[in-house]
Design a protein that fits this description.
The chain is an all-beta fold and 122 residues long. A hairpin with a 6-residue loop joins β4 and β5 (46-51). The protein has strands at 4-7, 10-13, 18-24, 33-39, 46-51, 58-60, 68-73, 78-83, 92-99, 109-112, 116-121.
Length: 122
């Protein structure tokens, strides 16, 4: 399995931006489907975006389309989530995950980071 470490979270005002990073261990990063999920207090973990291993294909949840961009640098073993026009409802712990299937289902991702807190104030 791949080891994942997120960074880049913090406190930002509504309308602001943050870029999350997820550093992965190992030499097979490019073979993994990578995803971002988030969990708000008292709520279930939910899918945000996913990117394929080499072709760079992406899928986004509707509530982040046009505001968030998922990307990856396979040479640096790093996944990113650029978040613009942040809203208070984007507040939560953001997790990166690695899997082998092209999927938005959390159960299909076998490796998870520890999460990074994003707080958006109104």
């Amino acid at each position: 399995q791949v080891q994942l470490v997120e960074s880049g979270g913090g406190l930002v005002q509504a309308g602001g931006s943050l870029r999350l990073s997820c550093a992965a261990s190992g030499r097979t990063f490019s073979t993994y489907v990578m995803g971002w999920f988030r969990q708000a207090p008292g709520k279930e973990r939910e899918f945000v975006a996913v990117i394929s291993g080499r072709s760079g294909g992406t899928i986004y949840r509707d509530f982040v389309k046009g505001r968030f961009t998922i990307s990856r640098d396979n040479g640096k073993n790093t996944l990113y989530l650029q978040m613009n026009m942040l809203k208070p409802e984007d507040t939560g712990v953001y997790y990166c995950a690695a899997g082998r299937l092209w999927s938005s289902q959390a159960s299909n991702f076998g490796s998870w980071g520890q999460g990074t807190q994003v707080t958006v104030s109104s």
